[in-house]
């Protein structure tokens, strides 16, 4: 093992000793109720009758009498608005059929909300996005609280849905749990063409009709969006953590392997319930090493900056305490092995065709950057994930088969070996200074732009940045500062409206960067952006002291972010927007209902968690 990876792992284990011990004791006490009988058999007759009243006679007979049949709870985030989740419409029936053939039963335990950041970006509804994660966790917990299940199937893919589902599943960590993916849509127009059209629209060179036509060619069918943002970073994480089958994450929804993989995953899930000798509860399956592997995978693929928040929140649910410093230290030794848009020209379909997750995991294992001795859906050996599924058409067109992943990358522009990475460092860097601490995604930014020193242009709304651009007020070297975008201020919406504007300024030749206590996600693109700055402005963070013209220095090489002007004069007043004014802005589209989340959230560098236990 790489010594830095080992040191970070040992540091996390030591830091988490008390909370992890308490967590394991909790799930062990919950598991005691499952010994020698299904969970439902611990209920009263009236309770059980309610739970199975709508089931078929055959299912009722199994649920009443069988001591060996598992009842698997399905938590689904299906809706028609999210293209990635639309294929889930038919999954519950398929899951029930697969499990019935194995002598088990499944019930839909809960349907959880699922919002699309792509639909709400730049809209007021985006202010509910981050807290939808905790809402999903609460909704999942309500569904599982019926306490009639022996295992859990989680149906979710996109940005906040996977973290929310997994957070709740870990609080029911005495049960085994898996994710079933549905896969990405086919490739549309090139990502570079899409980005160019957006920049032309921002510059006023084309109209809305041309922009919409371009977008429809990019987002065109059922399946996950094909760029490597948070949704596809989720899929990578679930596979590298062993919660999805090898090679299953990036197969298209209509791939004939899909139903066979789902059936095989369900076979493994039922083998891990407390009714079987191979009992493997989720809370024991995912340990500190699993989360280190997740961070390594995120860095090696240049994944979404959102996971610098989500991974901390997920781990905390299992009693494991992560810190941004862990991510930064690992980034120093984890090489960048993929170039997927916005970090490159290809998309996740091209990544899959180049060798996909199997090749990536094997390369990282070969240089000691991943823990091999972790529990997965297939057992305690991550090397099982260095293979890929296929149909052996010569033997049986309907039989799932496995083979070793490709020994060489099939596209060196998209997937590199560990011996010749795209970058020697990972995709994220932690920056510290007299403005606070924040993260920058360097995998999408040329190294020549890792350093910026320019005057500040200060805003409190992304729309005001757009207006200033349209008025020609940003035609200079500048650091665009957008404050009051943190979780307590407005729910930390992603600031997507900024990217075409900043990209245009940069392409014109100006030195431009973004500094914010808000989010920008995995689709952050080519402009250097210091994100998630803590403490946020509403909490008195130093970002609120920045004024127009201040000399701001961002250095991703040294890991620093400094306001040089304020070092000379600290006689300034913070709080240009008062808390009361921030609250008044949170009206409409249900935003007023989420004040309890904003008021109780932890900072971004603690996972932006509004849940307590």
Mean pLDDT: 93
Largest sheet: 8 strands, mixed
How far is the N terminus from the C terminus? Answer: 35 Å
Shape, please? globular
Strand order of the largest sheet: 7-8-12-11-10-9-13-14
Structural class by sheet pairing and helices:
alpha/beta
Number of helices: 23
The total domain count is 2
Measured on Cα atoms, how large is the radius of gyration? Answer: 24 Å
How helical, in percent, are the residues?
A: 25-40%
Strands, count:
14
Strand content: 5-15%
| Low-pLDDT segments, ≥5 res | none
Task: Please specify the SSE layout and strand pairing.
Blueprint: H1 3-15, H2 17-31, H3 45-52, H4 57-65, E1 71-76, H5 91-101, E2 105-111, H6 117-120, H7 129-144, E3 151-155, H8 161-171, E4 177-179, H9 191-202, H10 208-218, H11 230-240, H12 257-270, H13 282-285, H14 288-301, H15 307-317, H16 324-331, H17 348-354, H18 356-366, E5 387-391, E6 400-404, E7 428-433, E8 436-441, E9 451-459, H19 462-470, E10 478-482, H20 487-490, H21 498-508, E11 512-516, E12 529-534, E13 551-555, E14 560-563, H22 579-585, H23 595-600
């Amino acid at each position: 093992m790489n010594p830095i990876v080992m040191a970070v792992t040992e540091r996390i284990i030591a830091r988490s000793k008390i909370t992890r011990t308490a967590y394991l004791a909790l799930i062990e006490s919950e598991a005691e109720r499952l010994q020698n009988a299904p969970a439902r058999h611990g209920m009263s007759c009236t309770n059980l009758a309610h739970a199975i009243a709508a089931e078929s006679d055959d299912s009722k007979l199994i649920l009443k009498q069988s001591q060996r049949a598992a009842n698997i709870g399905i938590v689904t985030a299906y809706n028609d608005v999210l293209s990635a989740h639309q294929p889930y419409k038919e999954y519950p029936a398929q899951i029930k059929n697969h499990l019935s053939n194995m002598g088990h039963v499944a019930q839909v335990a809960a349907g959880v909300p699922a919002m699309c950041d792509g639909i709400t970006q730049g809209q007021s509804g985006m202010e509910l996005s981050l807290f939808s994660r905790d809402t999903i966790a609460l909704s999942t917990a309500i569904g599982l609280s019926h306490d009639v299940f022996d295992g859990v199937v989680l149906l979710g893919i996109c940005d906040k849905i996977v973290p929310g589902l997994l957070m709740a599943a870990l609080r029911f960590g005495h049960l085994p749990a898996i994710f079933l993916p549905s896969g990405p849509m086919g490739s549309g127009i090139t990502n570079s063409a899409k980005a160019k059209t957006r920049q032309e629209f921002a510059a006023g060179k084309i109209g809305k009709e041309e922009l919409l036509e371009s977008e429809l060619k990019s987002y065109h069918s059922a399946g996950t969006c094909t760029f490597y943002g948070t949704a596809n970073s989720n899929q990578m994480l679930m596979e590298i953590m062993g919660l999805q089958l090898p090679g299953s994450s990036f197969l298209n929804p209509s791939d004939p392997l899909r139903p066979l993989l789902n059936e095989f995953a369900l076979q493994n899930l039922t083998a891990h319930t407390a009714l079987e000798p191979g009992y493997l509860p989720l809370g024991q399956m995912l340990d500190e090493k699993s989360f280190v592997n997740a961070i390594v995978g995120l860095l090696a693929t240049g994944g979404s900056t959102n996971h610098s928040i989500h991974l901390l929140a997920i781990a905390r649910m299992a009693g494991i305490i992560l810190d941004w410093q862990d991510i930064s230290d690992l980034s120093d030794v984890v090489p960048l092995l993929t170039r997927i848009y916005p970090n490159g020209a290809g998309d996740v379909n091209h990544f899959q065709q180049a060798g996909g997750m199997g090749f990536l995991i094997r390369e990282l294992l070969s240089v000691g950057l991943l823990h091999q001795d972790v529990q997965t859906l297939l057992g305690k050996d991550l090397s099982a994930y260095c293979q890929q599924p296929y149909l052996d058409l010569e033997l049986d067109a309907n039989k799932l088969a496995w083979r070793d992943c490709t020994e060489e990358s099939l596209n060196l522009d998209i997937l590199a070996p560990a011996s010749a990475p795209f970058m020697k460092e990972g995709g994220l860097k932690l920056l510290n200074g007299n403005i606070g601490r924040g993260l920058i995604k360097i995998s999408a930014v040329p190294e020549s732009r890792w350093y910026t020193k320019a005057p500040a242009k200060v805003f409190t709304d992304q729309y005001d940045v757009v207006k200033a651009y349209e008025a020609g007020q940003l035609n200079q070297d500048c650091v665009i500062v957008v404050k009051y975008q943190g979780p307590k201020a407005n729910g930390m919406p992603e600031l997507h409206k900024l990217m075409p504007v900043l990209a245009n300024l940069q392409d014109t030749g100006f030195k431009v960067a973004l500094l914010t206590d808000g989010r920008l996600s995995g689709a952050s693109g080519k402009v250097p952006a210091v994100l998630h700055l803590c403490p946020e402005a509403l909490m008195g963070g130093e970002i609120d002291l920045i004024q127009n013209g201040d000399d701001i220095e961002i250095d991703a090489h040294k890991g620093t972010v400094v306001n040089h002007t304020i070092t000379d004069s600290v006689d300034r007043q913070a709080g240009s927007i008062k808390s009361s004014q921030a609250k008044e802005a949170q009206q409409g589209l249900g935003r007023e209902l989420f004040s309890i989340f904003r008021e109780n959230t932890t900072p971004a560098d603690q996972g932006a968690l509004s849940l307590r236990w």
